[in-house]
Amino acid sequence: MTRSNKETKSRLFALLCLLLAAVLLLPSCTVVSAAELSKDYSRKETEPGEIAADFPEVYRNFAFTLFDGIGEGEKLISPLSAMLCIGMIENGMSGETLADTGKMFGTDRDTMNRSLYALVNTLSSDKDCRFTSANSLWCRDTHEEPLPAFLQTNADWYGAEVYRAAFDNSTLKDVNKWAEKKTDGMIKELPIEFEADDVMLLMNAVCFDAKWETTYETDQIRNNMTFTAADGGTKTVTMLSSEERTWMENDRFIGFSKNYRGNGWSFAAFLPKEGHSLSDMDAESYAELLAGKTNDAVSVLMPEFNADYHFNFTDTLKAAGMEKAFSSDADFSAMYAENNAHLRTVEQNTFIDVSRNGTKAAAVTWGMMNKEAEIVYEKEIVLDRPFVYAIVDNATGLPVFLGTVTGENF
Q: In this predicted model, what pLDDT tens digit does every residue of 131-164 receive, in sequence order?
């Protein structure tokens, strides 16, 4: 091989290496087939928002409304993700629907928007303790477009991306790609099913990835330890041993907290005292425990664990006061000019991984708007007295079974 050929091959190899390095260094992107309309709705609001004085109480009350409402058993929710999703939905409400939702939260819509915007932007985040939040609206391409003012408000306060999509299998793939990207791969598939009259999907994703402030050494990792489950059975687990400096206690719980790097976030855990249970934790008790922190040395053993969950908040939200939003009487005239939309469901997927290295957690919350046309009944029949009935072959109209109901067998 000649010297010139060797030099040419060397240059080509070096060029290929550079190209490969450039590709690997490019930020990952999600290829979405849906048409993105986000460029038409960038933030125009100039106010930075602020966390209202009563908003922490509003947040805690809502958090435990959801937490208690989904029942007993092991669970993990993100109240913030749920509140951000419902906050976007609330911007489409009017009339009694808006008033009822405001009563449920304990604050008005404007305060919600400004407080949530300020809260998300004040949550600390760096390379060793990272938090992100993202929002998106997916609009069905065969239905009326949402009102521009609604889309703009959600761009102003939630930075919501806007997509126009077919609400078919390709949209489900797009939605799952979006969720996977926004949660760093922690949540890859959502149990979403589109119905024929669904017209908008509103989504929030939050993602947390942090390392412990103090690293666990090998001798602090205890294998083959016993955990007694709620049903009385025992499990073999790996425990992490450490000494912490924050103690919390009230008449129902004892607890501790452990910082992540940067000290902007911490992991807090609470153990029920004798005679009490997990269900005794409520907004008041939580606030009391955190307010009563003391700087005491605490010997801690906690298990490594990971899990994922799915919860439907619909019944909980109805019971809390949002029932009208889910009914045919809902008023979403700030979302659609033709005011016949209602909220069909609000659901959330969560993921948690607590290990010797730190904690990874994510949540995706979604609300589905449905625009099923209200049926106007021209006639009515109520079978509240004796009647004749038949089981009929539709092709011939012949009764294969024929009978009467007189009330004798009720």
A: 999 999 999 998 889 999 999 999 999 999 999 9
d(CA 93, CA 286): 31
Dig out the tokens for 402 from the structure.
């024929």
pLDDT of residue 26: 37
pTM for the full predicted model: 0.85
| Residue 112: closest CA among 101, 100, 123 | 101
- Give backbone dihedrals phi and psi of 228, rounded to 5 degrees, phi first: -95, 115
CATH superfamily, region 28-210+307-370: Antithrombin, subunit I, domain 2 (3.30.497.10)
Q: Where exactly does CATH 2.30.39.10 map onto the chain?
A: 218-305
Does 302 score more than 80 pLDDT?
A: yes
Domain with CATH 3.30.497.10 in the chain: 28-210+307-370
pLDDT tens profile 20-62: 343 333 333 455 777 887 778 888 888 889 999 999 999 999 9
Which residue bears the tokens 């060797």? 6
Q: What are the pLDDT digits (tens) for 61-98?
A: 999 899 899 888 888 889 999 999 999 999 999 999 99
Contact 104, 321 (CB under 8 A): yes
Contact 200, 140 (CB under 8 A): yes
**At 206, which amino acid appears?**
V
Q: Are 155 and 135 in contact (CB under 8 A)?
A: no
Q: What are phi and psi of 347, to 5 degrees?
A: -135, 165
Q: Is there a contact between 255 and 271 (Cβ–Cβ < 8 Å)? A: yes
218-305: CATH superfamily: Alpha-1-antitrypsin, domain 1 (2.30.39.10)
Token reading at 49 = 């928002």
DSSP secondary structure letter of residue 372: P
Quick one: tokens of 213? 């402030």
Residue 374: partners with Cβ closer than 8 Å, 6 or more residues away:
328, 340
Residue with tokens 């490969």: 20
CA distance 191 to 349: 9
| DSSP string covering 97-139 | HHHHHHHHHTS-HHHHHHHHHHHHHHS--BTTEEEEEEEEEEE
